[in-house]
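Re: weekly structure request thread

Next one in the queue (479 aa):
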Amino acid sequence: MERRNKKGKVIILGSGLGGLLAGVLLSRKNLEILLLKEKSYRPSHVREGFHFIPFSNFSEIRIKPTLLQELSRISPLRLPVDAEEEGRQLKLAFDKTRREIGFQVVLPNRRIDLFSDPSHSRREWRREFPNEVDRIENLYRELGHPQSLPFSPARSWIKRWFSFDRYPRESIDEMLSIFSKDFRQFIHLQLVSQSNLYSHRLPLVLSTSLLLNEEGSSPNLNAERLRKILLDELISSGGEVEEIAGVEKLEFKWRKGIFLSPSGDQRTWQGDSLILNSPFHRLRGFMGEKKGRLWPKWGKKVQPRYGLFPVFLGIREEVVPVGMKDHLVSLLDSDKPVEGGNVLFITLSPKGNTNQAPEKKRALVAEGLIPFGKWDQVSTEEQQKGVMRHLHHLIPFLDRYVEFEDSGYGKEQISCWSYPHFLYETTYPFRRQEGVVPTQLTKNLYFVGKESFPHFGLGGEILGGWKVAQQILKSFNRI
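Done, posted below.
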């Protein structure tokens, strides 16, 4: 049967933030954009009036104002920034922001709130680690000042954000060797919570950016809402969106471009460039024999270490203990592996927000870790039991106030090729301006997954999309 051809200048495979941003920037320059979404993947889950949003790290649910300002500058969008954010320059708003708690780290015998203002966090260290205060103070002085995170089409954005060339040999775990086990775990959980990396050997310069670059967050915006804003902008600027199950065939033909045939479909799309916007290890089978050779080259340098498996709970708000914050990372047992629910990343919908939960109820997302490559060996029922044991430790009498618990989303979604919730490990000496996996793989093949800049969380996804757009516009002489 003859296939019906549909031409497009740029094809985007996957609907993550990086690909959406690239699509918006390219469509505004009058390039034809075709975005291919996975039919079965859902970035959020709705049940009985509760709205659950899984996440890979806290940067996705705590979007920083500076990141929003830079995003608005490189791609003017109508972002829902309220009066408090707009008035952040005023002293009253500024003081309020500095007292804001970013998230909470819970260890077996300690609970530490992390504030936007380091002086408030310092009081937390003094209370929880009284025997190490002097060493902790020295540590933070030695870490120095974090790098800012600006985007700019000029050369200065690279020099301001990416100020070093090579991955330095000295890592944070070497610097922490003189500290107690609890403090080392406290630092490590902070680093994991703000990036897509799970490694004890993060270089000092990256650790400094993650540990010290705290600030307030926008209360009206998270990654899911930003994704919807970008998708609407892409469509309104002329981009097309199609849903597909997968890719049956992907061909790269010299001078003719790229031909993509979706699974179970008679259509074929032709484009001059292809943007891959999905976890790199999930795309290997789509890339064909020739392009699939890129997998050994880059896939070995940044590898998924854990998948995040979400369990959703609808609860009544009176069960939330006094002192428990809306976002927290918790370690239940210091002597056990992190999987099986022993480490949880937890977020609660804001109190009183009826868009995410019915009145006087809260939507709770608890994400545990499953070692990558062991999906078939790990029972999702056992994983859910481990998560619930941990939650019962954090929230006494939880059973009395639970409306329901739901792990069905995780069972369905974790096998989707668009499922993005992974933590990675790398020891590759990458350049920050290039990332780990480069955004341009070959002449007409681009990548904007989390593996490019895993050390910057959501900011890394946005940076990848911006870089790809600039590279493609340059190839079309549209800059």
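Residues 303-413 form one domain. The chain has three domains: 4-44+223-300+431-475, 82-212, 303-413.
Next request, please.
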